[in-house]
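User: I'm writing a tutorial on reading structure tokens. Could you give me a worked example: one chain, its sequence, then its tokens, then a sentence or two explaining what the tokens reveal?
Assistant: Sure. Here is the example chain.
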Amino acid sequence: QVQLAESGGGLVQAGGSLRLSCAASGRTRSTYDMGWYRQAPGKEREFVARIYGDGRTYYSDSVKGRFTISRDNAENTVYLQMNSLKPEDTAIYYCYAYSYDHWGQGTQVTVSS
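And here are its predicted structure tokens:
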């Protein structure tokens, strides 16, 4: 099994930046696909970004050009750099390991206007 631990959330003003981290431990491989999802109050969880084992990335239209997903294989960590944040980005952000169908506990991101 794999364990995922997110960090880096917080309160930021609109236009600001945050970087989320997702540290994986346990039975991990550096080539696994990882993703970020988010869930705003009263809404369903939605896809944000994905990074494949070969380094390819994919983003939702709502964050494309503002967010960047990356990984450090040596540290078994995936990052989500979030720039030009908007109030509608406010949500709990979850890390997801596709190969293990496993979620992290989430980290709160709040963007004030």
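What the tokens reveal: The chain has a mean pLDDT of 94. The longest strand covers residues 18-26.
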